[in-house]
Amino acid sequence: MDVRLQISMVFHLDKCIGCHTCSIACKNVWTDRKGAEYMWWNNVETKPGTGYPTAWEDQTKYKGGWEQKNGQPDLKMGGRVLRVLNIFHNPYLPKLDDYYEPWTYKYEDLFNAPEGADQPTARPISMVTGKYMNVEAGPNWDDDLGGSPIYAANDPNLEALTEEQRAELFEIERLVFFYLPRICNHCLNAACVAACPSGAIYKRGEDGIVLINQEVCRGWRMCVTACPYKKTFYNWSTGKSEKCILCFPRLETGQAPACFHSCVGRIRYLGALLYDADRLLDAMKVPDDKLVEAQRDLILDPFDREVIAEAMKNGIDEGAIEAAQRSPVYRYVKEWNLALPLHAEFRTLPMLFYVPPLLPVMAKSEDGLYDASNKELFSPIEKSRLPMEYMAKLFSGGNVDLVQYALKKQYAIRLFKRMETVGDIDHATVKRALEQVNTSEEEAEQIYRLTSLATMDERYVIPPSHREEAMQMLNDDTWAEKGEVGLGFRELPVRGA
Ligand code: SF4
Ligand code: SF4
User: Fold this and answer.
1) 16 CB under 6 A from ligand 2?
2) What element of type H or E holds 494?
3) The dihedral sign for the CA sequence 95, 98, 104, 110
4) Which ligand gives the minimal distance to the CA of 140?
5) pTM to 2 decimal places
6) Over 50: is that where the pLDDT of 474 sits?
7) Which of these, 30, 466, 24, lies nearest to 254 by C-alpha position?
8) Which of 126, 200, 269, 480 has its CA 20 to 30 A from that of 11?
9) Candidate of 14, 15, 19 to mutate for ligand 2, largest count of ligand atoms within 8 Å of Cβ
10) Residue bearing the CA closest to ligand 1, atom 3
């Protein structure tokens, strides 16, 4: 057992109100700079929809993530030779139009326009060319338009649905969508780390945060292609690539990242996970629909004596272990099986997990029609207006059972609290619903409390930082091993190296 520590995250999608406060907080702190205008390290997209950059999930177009070749994980963008050949012309990079042309307004026109019969207007100006432009796309262009045939029809996840299901989805188009906030997943098997020909990207030993060394980066942009989530960006002004740094200067001083701290819906949770690095490669080799379970199996019980002993042998201190024991992420992901990784089939082992949205449960789809006249108060999950196959494509590598379990559990908790607070649901119904997901009333209460009432200290359990004795996980010669693995380390951690 080779125990490592990873800062991990949970986003509870049922609580996201799509306010974009998180994106603005991040923009103001990190990407309000020349060359970074188009970057949104944190963005919030509407699903069904194409997201930012457009159709980022379509790996036939972008070639991000890993695939299995001869039983081994291999970068989808090709091996070392192909990457060298593409170094001066990489056909898989998103173009500016895939992101959007960033713009501002000539605000002074509003104040300085000569007096006239018309209201003055501020015209949009390109932040790239400085010229007037027509705005035709933006990072959240299809905001709230989930289901619109123009945007949502191009959502790559719809391929999991039958023609019939798609038609049904579009028939009720204005009624079903949810928000998907995204940041870098600080993956265990980071494709960006593996793809960088300069050895500039590394996974920080003591907490697993993935960073780009700006002094080493040569701007080859292989990381932009390799990241299947499109969460590394090229800065055209500095000639370097950049990405979400999980606000590490804030974490090191015990503060939550800016997007977490500012989250209006309180959907975000952050905490440490202990995992077994010895089993990483095995976890990557299982079929798509087994990936979530394999990833869960990597996560170790922070209360287990043997795990604690091995963690301490690897230099993980008591404070960090204690933080792992209080981690809200551990509870949602491992104990309760409620939070799932986004697109596990990209095989980067992402460390940001999502509680899938229950969506309104007051109505159901029946024979393609939206039906709000239920005999029972809530409609059953199986009749959800977003087909389970769609949710499974996003959150469980196509495994419908896993996503259905997470939704049924939330549903059972809703019934349980309704019984307690309103009293119009009988105990037998609640008992049945809880039993279906093997959940006790005590656990239901705990899930309710962490979901609805948790304080900031309970949502963000940040392990104490020890940068002064930072753990190194990389060989000195990172260059030599580039393109082989994205695990971020190849040797036992050494304190103070
Ligand atoms: S591969 Fe993972 S760690 Fe690397 S930028 Fe993409 S999401 Fe982040
Ligand atoms: S701040 Fe929170 S609630 Fe608002 S969009 Fe971001 S994640 Fe959602």
Assistant:
1) yes
2) strand 494-495
3) positive
4) 2
5) 0.91
6) no
7) 466
8) 200
9) 19
10) 186
